[in-house]
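Onboarding guide, step 5: your first structure request.
Type a short instruction followed by the sequence, for example:

Predict the 3D structure of this protein.
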Amino acid sequence: MKIIIRIMAIAQKEWIHIYRDIRSLILALITPAFLVLIFGYALNMDVKNVAFIIYDQDKTPTSRQFSEIFMHSEYLTCKGYVTKYNDIDSAIDSGKAVAALIIPYNFTENVKSGQSVHLQLIVDASDSMSATIASAYFNAIVSQYNIAWMQEHLNRAGFGSIQIPVNIESRVWYNEELQSKNFVVPGIIVIVLAIISALITSLAISREWERGTMESLITTPVRSWEVIAGKLIPYIFIGMFDVVITYVVGYFVFNIPVRGSFTELLLVSILFLIGTCTFGLVISSATRIQVLSIQVAMIATYLPTILLSGFIFPIKNMPIILQAITYIIPARYMIALIKGIALKGLAASLLTTQIIFMTVFACIMIIIGIKKINLRYAG
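The system replies with structure tokens like these:
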């Protein structure tokens, strides 16, 4: 009973600190939703409206008709025709177009005689991902044209419809429209929560040292783990508010589905917040200076969380040593959990590996925190 009283007393004391620093509190409550909105709209990885130009050397009705099939795609945007090669260079160099389709002189003659026609596609690969996707768009359209052309000539010759020996019927699960926001926004929510939770708790202990109240705390019978528990309680509540508000923004603004249990999503979010908030307390107790705590928290959470969580870059493509480091990044597991529960509708029991790793991370942080806030030997 006395333990609970001491923990609640520390939690109440921390609430008073947070309440008095009203600007930081507003920042902690509003910033997550604002960041999710900004990054959710900015980080759109869909490649649409690929600007391209056409250099039609043949200049016949057939070549014109062929070039028009590229203008009916929602993924391609024709910026017009050019009349010489130099115009292609200037268009791509100036950014007017990222691709140029060149139709050769003998296009109509070869098509009508049944000979192969070799088109040339020039793509600006300074953005390799967009260039690869743009090339795929053109190849897909040309493949459809070839099938339609062969079908038409077989029908004229009386051979019936064309039979394709191997065909694949794709069915896309969980993200039927292949929209990048469906995997970008959940990742952003996790990253924002990781950064904000570590940031706001990074002041909790260092504030005590700077104001000289830690010495008073040392003289009390309170234990180190009770300090950790008491200081975590208010920040967990703030973090849960951020969790709910960011999920609400993701659901109502970006139409991110929540197919699984929202309760399970909240429970794993609490586990995630315990780990990240305790990490902030560890930083705070190690530095003992508020400005330094904020700087360390930003450096220790921002870049590792974005680069090594698998949010942008696939972990399997990283060097072995970086893959090993990703195991200590809690956002790696939380991103897998939020995608599994929200997008795939999985039960949390099917994601026990991620939950175990997050639990281990939280336990390790708590142990380190208790060691760092060892009140008996503090100072």
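Each response can be followed by summary notes, for example: The longest helix spans residues 128-157.
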